[in-house]
Specification:
The protein has about 325 residues and is of the alpha+beta class. Helix content is about 30%, strand content about 20%. The chain has 2 domains: about 190 residues, Cupredoxins -  blue copper proteins (Immunoglobulin-like), CATH 2.60.40.420; about 110 residues, Cytochrome c-like domain (Cytochrome Bc1 Complex, Chain D, domain 2). Strands 3-2-1-5-8 form a 5-stranded mixed β-sheet, covered by helices on one side. Strands 4-10-9-6-7 form a 5-stranded mixed β-sheet. The protein has a two-stranded antiparallel ribbon with strand order 11-12. Helix 1 packs antiparallel against helix 2, helix 4 crosses helix 6 and helix 5 packs across helix 6.
Length: about 325
């Protein structure tokens, strides 16, 4: 019903209704409080105005009144907090099996790549009715990926991955903005999300040029950089075996345990001595400045693919410590 309101952006995702409901609740509560305060001020100003023959009297406080106007607002605020927290955690927890799209923010454009290898700039094609997870990083400064119709906005940071997800419910074309001032041409860093019917989306996937999937390109890069000489699938490797490591807990040399997620793999490639895997030596060199953001995405996608049967090549898995003995099942 609110999608027809001229100042209300179209709602085209499963998250939109929840966000809109909370926003409407905030508007109603603050509006009622504002009206109540306004009329009380007017009433008190009229009733207690200065008049001849009337002297001001000292008024003692009322404990029941103090408790009432403290407890009721606290209850309202706690409802808002709990409601917002539920929406927040829902929006920050992508469903399993989501379609993944890698996003790189750059002054002043959005570069996107699908798992199948299809590349886009300032445009994202996705199917209606499917969960889509965005794995995002920045090539330079802080950006913010904002699609008003999906009610999602997520900062995109240099040096790490951040995540967002959505489930589009309506086919159509929707605005994509950068919502964080990122330089002189910030206002021009715009694009669009094209939501297509499943059949049209499959046709689009098959119609664009794609030189291999992300994982396949990552495997080729993995071998080109010589990572497979250390990250082997047998016990002879000087680096950890990367097969099946993604998403699993990894024991480090200092006794800590971390989960091998995208940020862990990324850090292991760029700063291999940061988290050295137990049982290995920190001998892997850094690839900072050697691989681009797009190549990092490919390497991450390849390591993730090693969790799947038939993925990878014998003697190639494990980006950690690849190349020079390092101790990190992270992309070291």
């Amino acid at each position: 019903m609110f999608n027809n309101f001229p100042l209300w952006p179209a709602g085209a995702s499963t998250n939109a209704g929840d966000v809109d409901a909370l926003f409407i609740f905030l508007l109603v509560v603050t509006g009622l409080v504002t009206i109540a305060i306004f009329f009380l001020i007017v009433a008190f100003a009229a009733k207690y105005r200065r008049r001849k023959g009337v002297q001001a009297e000292q008024i003692e406080g009322s404990m029941p009144l103090e408790i009432t106007w403290s407890v009721i607002p606290l209850g309202v605020f706690m409802v808002i907090f709990a409601w917002g927290a539920v929406i927040y955690f829902h929006e920050r927890t992508p469903p399993r099996g989501s379609t993944e799209v890698y996003v790189v923010g750059k002054q002043w454009m959005w570069k996107l790549q699908h798992e199948g290898g299809q590349r886009e700039i300032n445009e994202l094609h996705i199917p209606v009715g499917r969960d889509v997870k965005l794995i995002m990083t920045s090539q330079d400064v802080i950006h913010s990926f904002y699609v008003p119709a999906f009610r999602i906005k997520q900062d995109v940071l240099p040096g790490r991955y951040s995540y967002a997800w959505f489930h589009a419910t309506k086919a159509g074309t929707y605005h994509l903005f950068c919502a964080e001032y990122c330089g002189t041409q910030h206002s021009g860093m715009i694009g669009q999300v094209v939501v297509m019917e499943p059949a049209q989306y499959e046709t689009w996937l098959g119609g664009g040029p794609a030189s291999g999937t992300l994982a396949q390109n990552g495997e080729a890069l993995f071998q080109q950089l010589g990572c497979n000489t250390c990250h082997r699938s047998d016990v002879q490797g000087r680096g950890p075996n990367l097969v099946g490591v993604f998403g699993k807990p990894v024991m480090l040399e200092d006794g800590r345990t971390v989960v091998a997620d995208e940020n862990y793999v990324r850090e292991s490639i760029l700063n291999p001595t940061a988290k050295v895997v137990s049982g290995f030596k920190p001998i892997m060199p850094t690839f900072q400045g050697i691989v681009s953001e797009e190549q990092l995405n490919q390497l991450v996608a390849y390591v993730k693919s090693l969790n799947k049967p038939a993925a990878g090549v014998a003697g190639t898995p494990n980006l950690n410590n690849a190349e020079t003995q390092n101790q990190n099942p992270k992309v070291q």
